Structure formats: C-alpha cells, structure tokens
Amino acid sequence: MNQARPLTMTELAGSHHEVGAEHGRIHRHLIQRGIQVYGQLFHDFVGIRWEEARDRACHFEAQIAQGFPEILEEMNGIAWGAGVDFIDILTLNCRSEIALAHASGGCSAFSLQRHGRQWLAQNWDWRHDQLDNVVALHIQGDGRPALVSIGEAGMVGKIGLNAHGIGVCLNAIRSQTCGPGLPVHIALRKILESEDMQSALAVATHDRVCSPAHFLLASAEVGNEGGQAVGLEVQPGEPGRITPRGGIVTHTNHLYAEDTPCPVQDFPRVDSHPRLCRLDALLHDELAADAGIDEARLFDVLSDHQGAPMSICRHFNPDQPAEERMETLFSVVMNLSERRLTLRHGKPCENDDSLSITLG
C-alpha cells in the first residue's frame, strides 16, 4: 500500500459561501476524485450508481435547510469552487446516510481527563481509496468560533475542535435506521460551530441526527476536574448517553449505552467489541496512574496492534472481502484544554510526522 501524502493545513475564512468556494478551489482535484471513489463505494456497498445516490441525497436537503441552512451556502460554494454540481457535494456530505446501512468503518475513539487536562483522540478507519482525499481545514468564519476539522475533501465537517475548547470524535454505526434530523457530517460541523457544551449537546438532543452514529463530545469548560465529556449514540430519537468512568469514555462501532430512551438496532462487525475491550484495558489499567500523559503517549495507544487484524491500529487484511477492508487512514489527538489538535496522516504506527495547530 502507498504511504500517506504529507498534509498541510488548509486556511479558510469569511462567510459560509466564501469558505466553501475556497475549499472547493483548493481541493478541486481531491473532491472530483472523491466523487469517483464514492461512486464505486456506493456500488460496492449498496448496489447503486452515483446518479441514484444523488437522488437519495436530495431527500435530506429540506432537513438541512430547517436545522442548519447556512451550511447549504457553504456546500454551494464548494461545488462552485470545485466545478461540480451542488447535488454532488450534497451527496458526499450524506454518504453515511446512503452507505452505512451496509458498511461501517472501524474507528476507535476515547476521551480522557487527567491532571486538569481534557483529551480527545481517535483513529479514523475507512477504505484505503480515501487516504489521499483526507484534508485538514482551519476555518475562521465570520462571527463564528475558529475551528479545525479533519475529514474528507468536499465534506463540511468531521472530527475536530474549536476555539472554545469544544471537540468531537466520530464512530460509524451500521444500522438500517434513518429518520428526521441532520445528516451525520452536517451535525458534526454544527457542533464544531457551537459556542459552548450546551449548544453542542443540543445538536444531538434538539436537531437530532438522521442515522445512528456515535459522537464523542468533550469540552475544556471547567467541570469537577478540569473538563467534561459524554458519549452520544445519536439517532433520530433521543440519543443514548455514556458518561465518563474514571475520567474516561471509550467507543468503537457498536451501541452499548444503557437505558437508551429510543433503542435502535445495529449490526456491528466482529472486530468492534475486541477493540473496545482493548481500549478499556489500555486506558483504565496502563494509563490509570500515568503522570506523563502527552500526545506521544496517546498516539501509542492508537498504534496498538494487540489482537491484529482486529486491533485498534488497523492494517490491510487480505482475509476480508475486498469491499470490507478497512484501514486506519488518520489519527488525531486533541488537548482541548490548550485548544491543540495533532494529526498523523496514515497509520500512527508508521508515521511519526505530525501536523499540529493551536487555536488562540
């Protein structure tokens, strides 16, 4: 497999339309290639062509217009800058709703509160086809908190943090549930534009999310010990909640919140439970009394290979069907207390080079 290309931070500023137009212009080639990748992915996972995927995406436009209308301006800007149709960009941003009834990634995420610092980290696992379409966006929107989003070219949001110390991670959930609410990636961006933890939580509890996913939401806002975090198993109904145990929340790709108000059915792959158990062991046992926690130590957790090929750091597995092979495409560690995000593109075990940004 090819190594990941070096990433630089893409600086975007202005209105939503201006941010989108510059995003589309700078990453025009990656966006066009991403449309080709997802055209094949939708065919492999769902058995539909790109044109049919576009038709399905159109059903979500009215829900976005109701819950986050400004982001439609940004998607229009991306389309203009990239030289593609608005519906193509809408389809990219609704890819979870179109494809995840049949496919889920293998992401492993955790939050950790220690020594007055709130940490948030994860591996993002997906098809190798998207490795070179990963982008790092630093967005300074008019009248909105500065934010960093690590995700896929042409998509308005995914994993990141903002200048108020709000951060969010994502775990895909394979489920056939879909209903009213914001598409997953639109909801993630709205969280990243939130002024505080309360408004970030409202995206899951008030706006709701079309299809099941797990949002690991954390804030540097002072709690009992210097930060706060909650796992939100989002869906069209009231989300299930996972509160910290020993300052830690862990999650992979299955639903496990207790007493969920609106239970939905998920269909996790066999690797999800072993990865969660290993995360718990690493964080609750090995890091329980560790005073030397920093980015390097947490990247070591994300580089763990115990139980391979069902490990936290995922590599090419020829025993899986070709359409199901998931690999770690990037790793992120966020120190929310210091508003710092550090990214490793590709597998964290193979790449010590990091891209780091601190928001003032």
From TrEMBL:
It comes from the Bacteria. InterPro entries: C45_proenzyme-like, Peptidase_C45, Peptidase_C45_hydrolase. Residues 116-348 form the Peptidase C45 hydrolase domain. Pfam families: AAT. This is Peptidase C45 acyl-coenzyme A--6-aminopenicillanic acid acyl-transferase. It comes from Billgrantia bachuensis.
